[in-house]
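Hey forum,

I'm writing up a methods section and want to include a predicted complex as supplementary material. The small molecule is S-adenosylmethionine. I've pasted the protein sequence and the SMILES. Can someone with a working setup run it? I'll credit the forum in the acknowledgements.
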Amino acid sequence: MTRGSPSETPPGLSSLLIPSPAGVDDSPANVPVLVARAMAEARYTGFPNSCSAVVGLLLHRLASQVEAGTIGEIGSGLGVGTAWLASGMRPAIRLITIESDAARATALLGVFAARPSVEVLCADWPAILDHGPFALLFIDARPAKAVSPDVFLPAVVPGGTVVLDDLTPIDRWPPEWRGRPDPLRDAWSHHPGFAAGEHRLSDDAAVILARRHP
Ligand SMILES: C[S@@+](CC[C@H](N)C(=O)[O-])C[C@H]1O[C@@H](n2cnc3c(N)ncnc32)[C@H](O)[C@@H]1O
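Reply by user p_vandermeer:
Happy to help. Structure tokens for the complex are below, copy them as they are.
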């Protein structure tokens, strides 16, 4: 949710966005092998909250733009988002993902066993902050979305990017949401440490992209 109309994508981020987000074919033949593996694991365990293919493509694109440092993910799930990030990132980049559910974290160790550049932590999300600062940080666990962006400012390098997904576009809000404030959008779009904007990826999905000011 948010008040008013969505803000513009921050300068410098628009070139990173996917050009034609509608109608992504995420059948196994059309996604990176690692993503297909994580999707199969998620299907096998009945995990319904993996990121969508449009979000995955965005993560892949953003990861490919990281030239140095570490990528972080909060809330690994069964590793679909992790796999999109890992498939897009350059060889010298490290990826750290954190998941509080032990069974999911254990499954992830199998999916990423052959990828030493991917580290899986099983812990409550604040533990990842000790591993920053991150060049790219995907915040995808509800408790981490509930805290102030202040917490993430020191966890992101100057010029680094934060991604938050699972936003419902305003024109898709049910009547009971209309006119109500949206703390997540409000907190990120007004934070002085970030240039944040909302980007619509499909009819029913939007993300916040926030770049830390240099
Ligand atoms: C939406 S799912 C993640 C999906 C995944 N990022 C993807 O793109 O496929 C959210 C995950 O966050 C995890 N989670 C929830 N609370 C957490 C916490 N306090 N610390 C770490 N992970 C948490 C949940 O167990 C769940 O697996």
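Some notes you might quote in the supplement: The first strand starts at residue 70 and ends at 74. Strands lie at 70-74, 94-99, 118-122, 134-139, 156-167, 194-202, 205-212.
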